[in-house]
Specification:
Elements: H1 3-12, H2 28-38, E1 42-50, H3 60-69, E2 73-82
Antiparallel strand pairs: 1-2
């Protein structure tokens, strides 16, 4: 996140940025929002797809398309609620939700 994006994010949350500086006391609200976002539960979905060839170098979109067309076979889907995704071994830290952080 560059300085401009950070300034815009802070201003969006009502934090005044004057000459690139912010009062520490003004950050309490932002930190509370960030803490709440970090504690968000997410579903982890595992899909088993069978194929004659390795799919390691394929995109997820291509694998899904192949399973849908019949050249690969999706045999099962399981979803599990993960209360702390950031602690899961498969979580890569990607933020894919609309979030200011």
């Amino acid at each position: 996140m560059n300085k401009q994006e950070l300034t815009a994010m802070l201003q969006k949350h009502g934090i005044k940025v004057v000459a690139g500086k912010v009062k520490t006391s003004d950050l309490k609200g932002v930190l509370a929002v960030q803490k709440a976002e970090a504690g968000k539960s997410l579903y982890k979905t595992t899909i088993v797809i069978w194929s004659e060839d390795s799919a390691e170098n394929m995109t997820l979109e291509d694998i899904g398309r192949e399973a849908d067309s019949g050249s690969m076979y999706a045999s099962s889907v399981k979803s599990k609620l993960i209360k702390s995704p950031e602690k899961d071994q498969d979580w890569d830290g990607t933020e894919f939700f609309e979030s200011p952080f």
